[in-house]
Amino acid sequence: MSLSQSSMTLKTAQLKAIYRMLSFNEDADTFDDDFALPPAGSSHNQWKILVYDAACRSIISPLLSVSQLRRRGVTLHLLLNSEREPIPDVPAIYFCTPTKENLATIAKDCGNGLYGKSHLNFVTKLERPLMEEFAKLVVQTGSLDKVAGVHDQYLDFVCLEQQLFSLGKKDSYVVYNGSGANEQMIETAMTEIAYGLFSVVATVGKVPIIRCPKGGAPEMVARKLNKMIAEHPTLLRNKSSLHRPLLVILDRNADLITPIQHTSTYQALINDMLKHNANRVEFDVTIDSGKRPKTEKKKFDLDPDEDPFYSQHKFNPFPEAIESNGVELQEVTAKEQSIRSKAAGQEAAVDPMASSATDLATAVDSLPALLERKKQLEVHTSILQAVMNQVAARDVPQFFELETSLATGSYKNDLARAKEDVLQLAADPSKGNVEDKIRLVVVYVLTTNAKTSDVDEVTAAVQQAMEGKDDNGKALLDKAGREKLDKSVKAIGYLKQLRSMHMLPLSSTLQEIDAGGSQSQSDMLSSFMAKATTQASGLLAKATDKVTSMLGKTHKHYATTVVENLCEMVPSSEDDDYLYLDPRVRGDVDVGKLRMMNRAPIREVTAFVIGGGCYAEYQNLQMVANERRTVSYGSTELVDADQFLSQLGQLG
């Protein structure tokens, strides 16, 4: 894989920096290209040991596999705080967070002569007091000659896709919204976020225009970041791009509904329904072996950029992904059978010089790639089946439909009907699990002006429904389930508290738009139903009854609307109200004066959310992307609905 400047996305820029680090920080284009890479163990690609902490392991894991690390000469990759054997003849590349504990461990390694030369790489800036303390430690142990170099890499973010990154700040919503957070704690947290965003800016090497709402966490982070960039001489010297990128910093509090609401697209449903972290998906499969069904654990590593099916369909509605998987699998299987039958039938009869023989040889040569494609599609069939099982068992489409109606203001003038419909679904023990029901109640709280007594009544109905027994007389909730219910109810308590203090914006402002294409919703549905009867896999037929409501309309979420208004420079919108910070200019920029000038169109935009982001928001933001504009998305951490609900519960 060659990382050319023309395709320099955030992910490719981060990979380029890591490749350079793995080549002892030597600048050489050959290290960017797997095909031009010198053989591992040669003088230009010598063997080395990679020692990292947990934070830096999470940065490298989604980018490079074990075999890719081996190709770059990494014989061992070890955790810094683990027991490690001495290998004194091999150089070590350290990649870790610049903390006092980590520096003490590295100094100890140098003093014990654990490895050959030590090349130290810190994920963010090594502050001078820590550097001086480390220097004292290595001088005291007489191991200064072991340190080959010290580098600040500014790579303090996890890149999961070309346009998706996270800062990996756990419980970030709780950190700055908790009642126990004092001024110093918030200041430290905002500085860490600013450093993370500075890493993103430094890695890409382009100075952005920074926009954010006035006040609160976004302004704190924006001003800190603006100062960091303005004081960095190398970044400011880079004036290679005519079009400046736009960085929009948002607060999770402005839209609490998106990370909670049930979703309908393939990637977002994987993250919601299955165990999914750092592009690895895990789920259980029940195998009917005759006597007793067996449960088998499945693990798959997905590549959202290089996997053709996933990259094409990850943002699509779930039923469309099922349909496409069936169609593509049939096509690939038919091609495979055709090649095999031709090869078997013509092998002996065909003249090797004839053109048909050449065509056959070409087809046979393409068979390995075809089989690899089939294998990838079968992986997605398994994942689609696992998601489908959860969607069907939990009646997710019913929750999705009702939440969407609430979020688009369908019940704005009929609160009694809203309560009735929510109560009917929430109180039915056969529909959904604890989280599904609480998520519906949260959406109800966030999108209507329902009375507190009505919210309490709906919440009590959920508790009553889930504390009952199933048809076999077994309790619906075990001890862990009851604890989860109690925590979830606390989340509703927290939102009620915010609402009583008038700190909760109503979120029923989603804009409904057509899903695209010339087909109407009914045409799409008819087409989907017709194809369901012809699909051989059976999976589509099973999906038809359950998930057809997930087709049709889609909606612009809060972040999407804001980013679009800023990119299109819409008058009387956030473009007028948001702060405009330019690290190349001292002080704040007056947007009113800019309106009298011709502003360059926005070609690259990054939306960053403080307090946690989600796949549904990432997918929704792609509505702003077009042939001339790329949209990247980042957040302090990526959370699924259960994780975010848990954070709200901690504050209740």
Helix percent reads 40-55%
Question: How far apart, in Å, are the first and last alpha carbons?
Answer: 49 Å
Shape by Cα distribution: globular
- Assess the beta-strand content as a share of residues: 5-15%
What does this structure look like?
- It is a single chain.
- The protein has 652 residues and is α/β, with parallel strands linked by helices.
- The protein is built from 26 helices and 17 strands.
- The N terminus is likely disordered.
Give a quick summary of the entry:
The protein contains 26 helices and 17 strands.
Secondary-structure topology with pairs:
Blueprint: H1 10-22, E1 48-52, H2 54-60, H3 66-71, E2 74-79, E3 92-96, H4 100-111, E4 118-122, H5 128-140, E5 147-152, E6 158-161, E7 164-166, H6 172-177, H7 183-204, E8 209-212, H8 216-230, H9 233-237, E9 246-251, H10 266-273, E10 275-277, E11 280-287, E12 294-301, H11 308-313, H12 318-346, H13 355-365, H14 367-393, H15 396-407, H16 415-426, H17 434-447, H18 452-466, H19 479-500, E13 511-513, H20 521-532, H21 539-547, E14 554-556, H22 558-567, H23 574-577, E15 579-581, H24 591-594, E16 604-610, H25 615-621, E17 630-635, H26 641-651
Parallel strand pairs: 1-2, 1-3, 3-4, 4-5, 7-17, 8-9, 9-16, 16-17
Antiparallel strand pairs: 6-7, 8-15, 10-11, 11-12, 13-14
Helix pairs in contact: 4-5, 7-8, 10-14, 12-13, 12-14, 12-21, 14-21, 15-16, 15-17, 16-17, 16-18, 17-18, 17-19, 18-19, 19-26, 20-21
